Amino acid sequence: MLLFLLVGIGISIGAVEQQLSLYGKANIPEDLSTIEAQFTPEGFTKLKTLRAQLEAEKLTKQNQTFTQTTYGYQFFYNPTWWKIETQAADVSNRVTFRLDSSLGDASVTLVVDSSDPQNSSLEQLRETVESEYREKGQFVSKELTTIGAQPAYRFLLTETHFGEKTEYEEWWTINSGYLYHITVRYAPLLESQAYALTLLNTLTFFSPQVPPAVKGITSTSKTSYTPVEIAEIVSPSVVNLIHLKCIKMINKDRSDIYLKPEYDFCATGKGTGMIVTEQGYIATNGHVANVYPEQSLIEQVFHAPAHPFMKDLVRDITYRTSFVSLTDQAVESLLEVTQTNPTALNSLMNATMKLLDGGLLEVKNEVTKYYVQLGREAIKIDPHRVNPDMITSAVTPVSSIIEAELVALDFPNRYSPAAQLRNQDGKGTDVAIFKLKDTGSQRFPAVTLGVSSSLKPGEPLVILGFPSLVEGDSRGNSLIDYTNAARTQSVTQGIVSALKHDNTGRLLIQTDASIERGTSGGPAFNSKTEVVGIVTFGVEGTLGNYNFLRDTADIKSLLDTNQIPVQKNPVFEKWREGLTYFWNGYYTKASNNFRLVKQMYPGHPTVDEYISEAKAAIVQGKDRGLFLGFEKEVLIRVVFYTFLFLISSLLVWKLLMAKKNHIVVSSQIRTEV
Question: GO:BP terms for this protein (predicted)?
């Protein structure tokens, strides 16, 4: 069973302005139920909103980026761990990150050298610095590796203090004509080395805002992107999945005096997916599809103790085991225990599974609807319509919310009586494929599926998804109302912690990136914007995060089995190319790409914004590819072909004149004769 230990936000909360002043932001407790009685119902929503703001600020401030656009690099760091020492933000060619003393003793210093000629190669650099290290007696070893997706040399060196030799690291690499020299020092205290190397693994390089030399148009064959760039490139391909479902519980034991013949249960759920073909096929987790009625029973019904079925079930099971008829108050007391004591809840679930296993109860799907949110409009779900008769009209229709159908699944039923009672867990990978319905001629921006098995521990990851914690879910334990939640993706970063395998031998990628409920099925990207993992589950505790991604090979296998071809996607490529032009100041070229994207995918959520920004930049004369309002490349071609025409014309004229003179001379000779 998938485990999610989610941050508690507080179920019952309330406040009014005058009462809030008694607490202040810093004094609002995490468990708001402890102060619920002190507030009016009107203040309930106000305190919830304030608490949501605090949690959102906490999530935003937990990690930050340090970006030097002048020198083309970026770190992702936790400001509570690292203190930054630099002369001036975005100007200084030197920065030092110093670890907080409570965590250990470490520093990472990066120095940029722009004086080196651009024709220097990494090998020439290696020869020079290695020679210096050997002359000083510092050299221990060297290693050709990568840093920030760039080839780099890592040197292990020594220096002497108090008569003792101490080892440290220096890294050298080249990007856009700049030399990057990184010094990493750490003492054997606590996890100093781990903190330093984790910070180093977040380093990424990009094209500097002011490059060392202008060599004409920049190439769009960029192979490494910053986390911010990755998020902007891939966000139109990452979608929000919503499912609405009603299941029916049937009592087959007609002699039962407490359980009614039938019960209906309806619920909504959500997850994250990614577009994998331009035809609108979407990959996600199998458990996001929620196809098994037993899964809905366990995840939804047992978290709703007020449901009539739960009350009747407690009465029925108690009578079956002890022949005691419970009062309403006794039933309420027992249900309260199940909500605070996991063992009690587990016992109730097992008793229900035994009834299902014995054929006394049957649970089956009644109605299931899937929707995909492609745009940015709010997802509006009418809770009064989430019932068997009206569930098909519960979602307010907007152009960016499209119905989908489940077309392929590889996910065992881990919620069946056999799995729950006898541990007969089926084999599967927990992946699913959906297909958008009624999309017309639109072509969608499909992501590129990379190779998970090529990942190495320490490699950076960027994960996009729609966590329930900040977006909302059907249970109400969220920061934002789920029934009217705008589509806003959350971006988290982390590294590959380890490569492991599940009980079937399939690859799993362990990461320290935060994973919340609702993010399931979301993609994890490498610096090349390739998907290298699918978010599947996570466990968070005081010792850290233990979160896992599924192998992209699982998705590829399911696509192949169902004969769904995956091809290079022009919408995604033109979008990425257009953004690269845009970020490098070539707004006319970017605008051309964006218009092509809009033609292929009219519903693209952000392309119109970029078209407007590119147009404004062109009008303001900011386009690096224009001269006197014309594209430089076009002008160069015009000048070249005009020059070629003039030269050709001159040669032709000379030839004609020479021929004419020859004729005149010949005529004169004949006349004289």
Answer: proteolysis
d(CA 173, CA 175): 7
Residue 43 has pLDDT above 80, yes or no: no
What are the structural domain ranges in the chain?
Answer: 17-62, 65-215, 231-561, 570-627, 631-672
Q: What pLDDT is attached to residue 649?
A: 80
- Residues 114 and 127: their CA atoms lie apart, in Å, by 19
Please determine, for residue 672, whether its predicted confidence score (pLDDT) is greater than 60.
no
Read off the amino acid at residue 361: L
Q: Side chain identity at 337, as an amino acid letter?
A: V
Strand 448-449 with 530-541, pairing: parallel
Q: What would the mean pLDDT of 152-159 be, rounded to a whole number?
A: 90
Within 8 A by CB and 6+ apart from 77, the residues are: 63, 64, 65, 66, 97, 199, 202
CATH of domain 65-215: 3.40.1000.10
Tokens of 123: 């090998």
Q: How does residue 115 score in pLDDT terms, banded at 50, 70 and 90?
A: low
Q: Which among 266, 331, 325, 329 has a CA at the least distance from the CA of 305?
A: 331
Closest C-alpha to 380, from 472, 310, 303: 472
Percent of residues, the chain, with pLDDT higher than 70: 74
Burial class (CB in 10 A: 0-12, 13-18, 19+), 101: exposed
DSSP of 127-179: HHHHHHHHHTT-EEEEEEEEETTEEEEEEEEEEEETTEEEEEEEEEEEETTEE
- Point out which residues pair with 142 in neighbouring strands: 155
Separation of alpha carbons 180 and 112, rounded Å:
5
